[in-house]
Each structure stands twice: as structure tokens, then as C-alpha cells.
Amino acid sequence: MKRILMMVLRNWYYVPFKWIKLCWYAAHADRYTDYEHFVFLRDIVRHANRGGNVNIKVTGQENIPEKDGFMYFPNHQGLYDMLAMLEASPRPFSAVAKKEIKDIPFLKQVLACLRAFLLDREDVRQAVQVIANVTKEVEKGRNYLIFAEGTRSKEGNRTQDFKSGSFKAATRAKCPVVPVALIDSFKPFDTKTIDPVTVEVHFLKPLYYEDYKDMKTKELAAYVREKIDEKIAGKV
């Protein structure tokens, strides 16, 4: 990936020290608070973005609930999505990610710092346990991010079906659901260009439990996708 190489080369003076520190943070995640991890990761992402000609445009931060214990549900465009969210979000969050990315350098360390749960989509029992764990963590006041499509889209800004199971932790925790529309997030890492690119992150109006309590998870998933699609359609 040409852009990743450019990010590294333009931050040559910064990368070695931060890489060692990132590995330390990842290996000793419990020694640091969520906020300490978040600030550290966001600093790395901002340096990487400047070096890689990536600009993040953020709107809707006022839509993020004031009280912690909510869940982000962005569309999933590419490997860069998590980094876009780290710069755009004003509040710390953890994540649920598929186990297939657990061995990708850098992302592996980032997920460890986020104390992310890794989901085995072929193991139903393990998936149920992950949902239970996330529910408990959200009830305790930790924020979470889930890519409800399950895997990244191969069609740019076009979304895929949002899986209803991705919303079970939110409905069980009765927490606010925050749809997030990512636009052009596939361009930094999933294309060959190294031209300057702007990734848009739009935090949409949240749904509180009173708003969705009568919906089935399938209906909630469809509604969140619809709102994200509407935002994307108005921008591209």
C-alpha cells in the first residue's frame, strides 16, 4: 500500500519511538485507562494522516450522547475506517472486530489498546458470548463501535446489508445507537492512489431506547442503514 509507505517515510523521525510505545501499550493494556489509550492512538493517527495526505472532515459531533455508554454503528468501507473514527470521535470507544484482522500489524496493536472483542463469525457460541460481554461493558459506561455490515464493502460508498445480530448488544443494554456515515474511507488504503484525499465522518442523530424499543433488531438495522444511505446520497 503506497499511502501507508508514504505515511511511514514522512514520519520517519516519529515512527520508531511510537511503534515501540504502541507495542508496549498493547501488551500492557490494563495499565492504562481508556482515555489514555484513546489520546495516544489519536495522536498516532493524526501524524499518519498528515504524512499520508489524508484529511478528515467531521460533522455532527453534537449528535453524540453526552453520557457514555452508547454504540457507534458506521458503514464499513475499508481498512482505514477505524483510523478515521479514532480521529473523528471526541470520546473514547472500544470495538468489536472480526478475528481475521487480529494478525495485521498495527491494527492488531490498535485493537489491543482499544480492548476490542474479536468475533469468530463461524463460532455461534463465541459470538453469543461476545454479545453478552459487550452488553455488560456498555451498561458499565464504555462506548463501543460495531461495523454492522460484518465485512467491508467492495463498492466504495455503497453500503451492504446491516446484520441484525450486530444490534443485539445495543438493544439488550438499552443504550443510544449512533449511526455514522463514512464517505470515501475506502480511498486511503483500498486504492492505489496517493493523491490528497478527504474522508468524511458524519455522526447522525442518535436513537435512544425510547425511539427503538418497539423495533425488532432487523428493523433497527434497516433503519440505521437507511439513514446512513441518505447521508451518503446527499454528499456523493
Looking at the structure, what is the overall shape?
A: globular
Total domain units:
1
The number of helical segments is 10
Distance between the termini: 25 Å
Give the topology string: H per helix, E per strand.
HHHEEHEHEHEHEHEHH
At the first level of CATH, what is the class?
Alpha Beta
Portion of residues in beta strands equals 5-15%
Class per helix and strand makeup? alpha/beta
The major pleated sheet works out as: 7 strands, mixed
Please estimate the helix content: 40-55%
According to DSSP, the number of beta strands is: 7
Radius of gyration: 17 Å
CATH topology descriptor: Glycerol-3-phosphate (1)-acyltransferase
Largest sheet, spatial ordering of strands = 1-7-6-2-5-3-4
- CATH architecture classification name: 3-Layer(aba) Sandwich
Low-confidence runs (pLDDT<50, min 5 residues)?
none
Description:
With 236 residues, the chain is of the alpha/beta class. The protein has a single domain (2-233), classed as Glycerol-3-phosphate (1)-acyltransferase. Helix content is 43%, strand content 15%. It has helices at 2-9, 15-27, 34-51, 81-88, 107-113, 124-139, 168-173, 187-190, 209-212, 217-233; strands at 54-59, 71-74, 94-98, 117-119, 144-146, 177-183, 197-203. It has a seven-stranded mixed beta sheet, sandwiched between helices. It is globular and about 55 Å long. The model has no long low-confidence stretch (mean pLDDT 93).
